Amino acid sequence: MTALLADIRRWFRGLSPFAILLIGWLTFMLYAYPGFMSFESVDQLLQARASEISAAYPPLMTALWQVVDCVFAGPFGMLVIQTVCFLAGAYLLLKRFMPARPAAFCASLLLVVPPVAAVMAVIWSDSQMTGFLLLGTALVLSPRGSVKIGSLALFIAATAMRIDAAALTFSLIVLLFAWTPTLRWYKRYPIALLVWVAVTLAAIVVNNALTTADENSHPWHDTIAPSDIAGTLRNAPPLSDAELQPILANTPLLPTHDIQDAAQTELFYDMPRTAAERAAIGRAWKELIPTYPAAYLEYRLQLLIDRIRLHGDDIASTTYVWFTDVNDPDSAAKLGFSARPAGIQTVLRDGMRAAGSTELFRPYVYLLLALVLLPFCFRDRELLALGLSGLVGELALFFTATSLDYRYSIWLVVTAIMVAMMLAKRNRTRRDSTG
Amino acid sequence: MNAETPARNTGWWRALSDAPPAAILAVGWLVLVVYAYPGQLSWDSLEYLRAARDGFYTDAHPPAMSGLWSLTELFVAGPSGMFLLQSLAFITGLYLAMRKTFPARGAAWSAALLTVFPPILLPMGVVDEYALMVGLLMLGFGALLSIQRRINVLGLVALGFAIAVHPTARVAAFPLVVLLFEWPSRPALRRYTVAVGVWLAMTVLAAGANWALTDLQIGHARAERNLFDIAGVLAYSDADRADADAQRVLAGTGLRIDHMIHAKVRASYAPRDASTLLSGDNAIWELPLAPDTPVPDAQRDAIARAWDNLALGRPLQYLSHRLAVTECVLGILDLEHQAVVVPRYPVAREIMLDAGLATRSSGLQDKMTDAARALVDNTPLFVPWIYLVLGLVLLPFAGRYRDIVALLVSGLAAEATLFVTAVDNSYAQSLWLITCACIALVAVIARKRTWKRRKTTVHT
């Protein structure tokens, strides 16, 4: 028995990094296979199959799913893409700070920790973005030109997945991209800045080119601006209908009287359908927000506090653990896809639902962690880029978030944990070398 | 690349030549996965899955299959877990087997290419007892060839599971164990005695496991086969029996007709499929077909008596019937095989969706299915008798190679059992023979070439 245990221990120690990553990925799959799908995911897949790519969802993701669905029908192909990119990127990044086997172990651990696994298991644009960002960040550090180009393609894909991803890629590209290592700073950073602008524009162009159902993407007019208007009105001083109606003229406003009171409800606006309505929303935003900046900031601050769960209130579970749209019993039939949880998966899903109400799923914890660790990152460009990326991304959400979904903060969570791992290893290495 | 640059010096060739064995195997396996994901299901597969989820096993099929499925359902719901098990067992065993003939990379290439060979790929994509049996037999065979004792024992375990999953594996495993399992430092007689003892132990354990797992004996499989034989004997009789005589012999067997019995049996009988006698408007016998409804004891006994009377009493007619069935199984006269290309969704959508199963295949899978159908319809690749002949032709050439002899004998013996046991001409039941013949072909050619090259080198 002792010899057998010794053999097992020797076998574990002899595992290659690839084997460790594979075990980590398979462990994650015990929870996530074949991939969870919310209403958005189901709708996106239906669009992909109908070849009607609208701007309601990231067109690049819908187009990608269209291709992937041709090989593996359903969510599994996309789950593989987002998790393999995630693992590969995390491993390559961590390997720069620690030996290969510990890096593989840490990358696997990062994928399976509940605050990360809860999002990476669902076919969302946020999950795709996270995978592409991690792999892109790892590859941009390569000395090979072709690999750097590949990393830019990944950054374009990540930016195309979410409107605010440009803020996430800013520090990653500006601080880490260098075509040759010998470039002086006064050439390097302007070039990197131009590359970031090009990546951002390319993402917009790609999304617009892929959209077949609507002409162009209007996320700001469709969601952010209407939410800002409603939120500002909620906190603004009392305004009569006579004052508000001219400002909100030609917008797809739902209430016809007691407009400011109606702004307290969620059904304040319909989606703008025409260019005139979008222009009216833009005009209303430009009139209201500069006039009531305090009300706007108060709305945004309250939204931030709620979103990062800074309030001490109990939170409902923020995890999504269903294979099809939990609110639509017909979604399985529409998709021709159904799944049941395996025995262990049932336990893991229940555990994840329970974990979703804990402190682990309060983004403010990771925001604080990132802020505390940031000063320690200044000496290391890669750490600084990652740390800043997570923080700047969260800052961008201050202005762009319209709901409280936990998944919006996934990049902050991932970068905070990774920076913590890398710093811990760096400090340990320094202690060992001085000790 | 210009015209003077040999193809072997180009990047792609070098990449192929230098690819690690694991990567080559992975690509071969992935082709199977892409074709079959998440694992194709047949009618029988759904029965296994239902039994696995209900935890209620009958002897309609070996309960070990459902038992294994209930274990994989702990980790992966649906067919994926079993598909992983059978496909990985198959390709791993195949690689280990080919390592006896080729170095690592060559073994990986041959294993990958054999895995994607359509006559093997198509049935291996279906989660049923045949594919699982073949996967486990392959793993057992490959493991028995290892020089490490621990791996040999794992091979025996795999063979034991194969025997539990399908009774044909008893016969298939016998030559593998007897010829390849060596207990060290023993004289030949003791070695073979031990090997036979090990095989007996595996068979008894497998039977015991199935018996222990069985919650209800329904006796359907034996009854169906006996009725098939009875019908066959009647069909090959020269003259029709009088109704009174037929009724006397077939009393209590569940006969649905009482007039022109012999003629109607003759008309309904088809050597390619026993189900024509038991279902449909022209069914001859009433046999409980529901998976958890046992055949009444009285009916079972009556069927057994009738079988003894007719099959044993008329051996020539019985042999003619069995020969006709075998011709259908081997595709000698009748090329139309059941379920070479299994329909992607065997039952109604609602039933599949309720069971948490997908009802939609991908575009690529549909194209692969169309290509498979074209191959089946237009090529002789899926005709088992070709592999039977190949196996018999290769046997003398394989005489020097114990492992290939064991494999060929295993495949041929397994196919021979169908002479007595087959009740339809399902293609998958010949899968082990086809696999053995293909492996033997590759191995014999490669080893002969190596031997000739060595001989030439020695002489020069």
Question: What is the N-to-C succession of helices and strands of chain B?
Answer: HHHHHHHHHHHHHHHHHHHHH
Structural class per helix/strand content of chain B? mainly alpha
Question: How many individual β-strands of chain A?
Answer: 0
H/E series of chain A, N to C?
Answer: HHHHHHHHHHHHHHHHHHHHH
Q: Residue share in helices of chain A?
A: 55-70%
Mean pLDDT of chain A: 90
User: How is the biggest beta sheet of chain A arranged?
Assistant: none
How far from one another are the termini of chain B? 37 Å
Question: Helix segment count of chain B?
Answer: 21
Strand content of chain B: under 5%
Q: What would you call the structural class of chain A?
A: mainly alpha
Mean pLDDT over all positions of chain B: 91
Report how far apart the termini of chain A are.
38 Å
**Helix count of chain A, per DSSP?**
21
**Radius of gyration of chain A from the CA trace?**
23 Å
Structural write-up:
The complex is a heterodimer of chains A (435) and B (460). With 435 residues, chain A is an all-alpha fold. Chain A starts with a helix and ends with a helix. Chain A is globular and about 85 Å long. Chain A has helices spanning 2-13, 17-32, 39-50, 59-69, 76-94, 100-112, 114-120, 125-140, 145-161, 165-176, 185-210, 219-235, 241-247, 259-262, 275-291, 293-307, 331-335, 343-355, 363-373, 381-400, 410-434. The longest helix of chain A is centred in the middle third of the chain and has 26 residues, at 185-210. In chain A, α19 (363-373) runs antiparallel to α20 (381-400). Chain B is mainly α and 460 residues long. Chain B is built from 21 helices and no strands. Chain B has helices at residues 11-18, 21-36, 43-54, 63-72, 80-98, 104-116, 118-124, 129-144, 149-165, 168-180, 188-213, 220-235, 243-249, 261-268, 297-312, 315-330, 349-354, 363-378, 384-397, 402-421, 431-459. The longest helix of chain B has 29 residues, at 431-459. The two termini of chain B are 37 Å apart. Residues 1-5 of chain B have low confidence and may be disordered. The A-B interface holds A 30, 33-34, 69-74, 76, 323, 332-333, 335-345 and B 34, 37-38, 73-78, 80-81, 349-350, 352-365.
